[in-house]
């Protein structure tokens, strides 16, 4: 099982950041919360800081850990560990994604998500309220 982290990032308007995976890559064309694999010897928090720097060009403070999601894809199983993050510095750029976009919580279910990210939507609703329709 591969350990993977993802950041749940909100802006000042309460919108959540989502990244579109590039076409031609595994799960290309699906949305995800930005993040990536935990390297040997790294904590989840250290990996998330590194991944968000590499993928988005930002420095973050890692906050509340949400419930991990275990998911079995065709060839690999992952344990996805979401954390609420706050941008400390930098300007968000789509360095590893086709594009990144801010979405209101009520819009999130309208996106086509990577399967492991779907259970996180309910956690976001529980954390910040508001129906996800």
Describe the 3D structure.
The protein is of the alpha+beta class. 18% of the residues lie in helices and 37% in strands. The model has no long low-confidence stretch (mean pLDDT 94).
The portion of residues assigned to helices is 10-25%
Report how far apart the termini are: 32 Å
Percent of residues in β-strands: 35-45%
The total count of strands amounts to 8
Task: Please compute the radius of gyration using only Cα atoms.
Answer: 14 Å
Global morphology: globular
Provide the fold topology.
Elements: E1 2-9, E2 16-20, E3 31-32, E4 35-37, H1 44-56, E5 58-65, E6 69-72, E7 77-90, E8 99-103, H2 118-128
Structure at a glance:
This protein is an alpha+beta fold and 133 residues long. It has two helices and eight strands.
Question: What labels describe this entry?
Answer:
18% helix, 133 residues, 3-stranded antiparallel sheet, 2 helices, alpha+beta, 5-stranded mixed sheet, globular, single chain
